[in-house]
Amino acid sequence: MFKGVRTVILDYDGTLHDSTKNYIHAFKQAYAYLIDAGYAAPRDWADAAITKWLGYSSKAMWENFMPDLDEEIRSKASKMIGQILLEKAKTGQAILYEGALETLQALKEKGYRLIFLSNCSRAYMEAHKESFGLDRYFDGMYCTEDFGFIPKYEIFDSIRSVFPGGYLIVGDRFQDIEVAEHHPVRTVGCRYGFGFPGELESADVLIDDIRELNDLL
Asked: What is the pTM of this model?
């Protein structure tokens, strides 16, 4: 199925990076600020109700989560989450899924071009690149902030103009798999990430561990 693939485009959070613990903490801190400022009501949050926003850009997350929130307040809460996540990465508290780096290394040794594509800020991407030495594995690193947080399928053309086909997209959310609705690419859905049941049903293959990717290619 994946014969002819030369470039593998990988999502980050929920695919390589297990951001569950850090994101839940950051989200709750920001929500506490909104409560204290009188913009939100107290609420007990289930983890799944928070992690469902992982995979969204910050812009899309707030537009869906609290669309009527004042733009200035939304920006402050969003920056609060971003800053906490940044500090976690810079202080060695970010966690990759077991076998993530080994899988990247194995694919690189097989001759694949590896591309990082995440709905994140440049600062977040750079912090994780520094923390894990990601530039040792990735031939190109793209964050949606650099493109005004447009969808990944629109950013794909920028990747295609630089890196050779065929292409494989690997990710845990619909934002990754929907690239195939617009471009001739293969897709691998990561069931261990943050997607909901059925969200990855159109993926060509589903995996339960990032290490399975090395067995497919």
From this structure: 0.90
